[in-house]
Amino acid sequence: MTDRQSYSIIEAEAGFRLPKDHHEYVTAEITQRCRDNLKAVAGVHQALEAISLAKCVASSSDVEKLRVTLKITSLYDYFAPHVFSASQVARGKPAPDLFLFAAEKMNTPADRCVVIEDSVVGIQAAVAAGMMVIGFIGGSHCPPCHAEKLMEAGAIRIFSHMTALPRVLGGL
Q: SS3 of 156, please?
C-alpha cells in the first residue's frame, strides 16, 4: 500500500483529516531517522555480490524513499536503475501490478521471476503475478510466527540469514 493509501485508511478509521503537510513532514522525519539509524540486513552485500542474476527492487515505498534508503544502506548500486515503486502502478500489493510492472521493465516473463519477500501481502502479490516467491524472516520486524504466515501466503521456501540467499536460489 502506498503512503497516501495508508493515510486515507487512517483518516477513515480515525474520523479526521490529517494536515495537508503530513506526508512531507512524515517523509522528512523518516529520512532523518533512516540517516541516523538505518543499516543493511547483515550479509546482504555479500549475498548480492554472489548472485549473478538480474536484480531489481519492487517496493510499496515511494520512489524517493526507496532511493534514499537504498543509498544509506549502500544497496542502490546493486539495483539501479531497476528500482520500482507501487506509486508507478494502479494497485499496490497484494495486487500483482507492481511485480508484473517490474518483470516487464526487466524484460523477464513473470514465470521466470523469483521474488524475495518479507511480508504476507508481498507474497500474495508475487503469487498472483505467477512468480516463485521465497520468504525472508531475518528482518528485525519479523515476529516468531512469521515463517508460518509467509508459507501460508504461498512462499515456497523460507530463509532467515541473507548469507543463505545464494544457496537458496541455487537450490531452485
A: coil
